[in-house]
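Hi, here's the filled form for the chain we discussed.

Project: internal
Contact: R.S.
Residues: 282
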Amino acid sequence: MSRVAVLGLGAMGRAIAARLLGAGHDVTVWNRTPGRDDELVAAGAAHADSPGEAVWDREVVITMVTDGSALEEVMFRPDGAAEALPGDATLIEMSTVGPTALASVAERLSVPVLDAPVLGSVPSVEAGRLVIFVGGDRDVFDRHADLLGLLGTPLYLGASGSGAMLKLVNNAAGIVALVAVGELLALTDRAGLDQDVVLESLAAGPLASMIERWRPRLKGEDQASYFRLALARKDLALAFDEAGRFETRLTVPEAAAARCDEALEAGLGDEDFGAVVGFLRE
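And the returned structure, exactly as it came back:
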């Protein structure tokens, strides 16, 4: 059993805390907005009034927040986590903040940090099927691989920032593919082709894996929201920031971002990011 703090109780943070609690770990939780920990506390988690209070006696601290600014606040506000972290703790940063924000935080801490952003949504957490991209010291990863394994499949990718960078790359690839599918389905819709036939043909080509995973949503059978379009667009912006650091153009993701911006202007920011497909088809 590990003593774990989970800071940030959006949908993913709550699911992660519940999964660890259900596995028998000693879990303390904190969230900026009160009330989001009620079910977790009822299930046995400890409530903390501040990030510092949440982490002072923890072995592992997991952060799952919206962006780099939120991470900065959680760690370095007056009652933040940074100064209260025990010397033998590990910070596992599971948000999608990018390698620059991660490095800014890690270089100011005296404890080891793993960047461990994830592929997957709440159902993936609940089933223990996340894919977790991990960067950092290999020995630190090995110490916490079993804990991460409760949430899914942890993949060690290399030095600090590797996980954060490859999460941005994967998210960008996913959004680009969705925009491409949306535009291509708009074409086949107007050509009068049967949707099932179109999806079968796409499933036979290079988009096979994506079409199989997304088929219920592409057909309108799954209306659930797993990842908001506004957050997907935020992640694209982070990818562009990193590309700028390396003087690299991401012209195809830039085109996809422009189509996402159209959907955002139409008021779809709080919809699942797959809503961009339906928007483009219309």
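Let me know if anything looks off before we file it.
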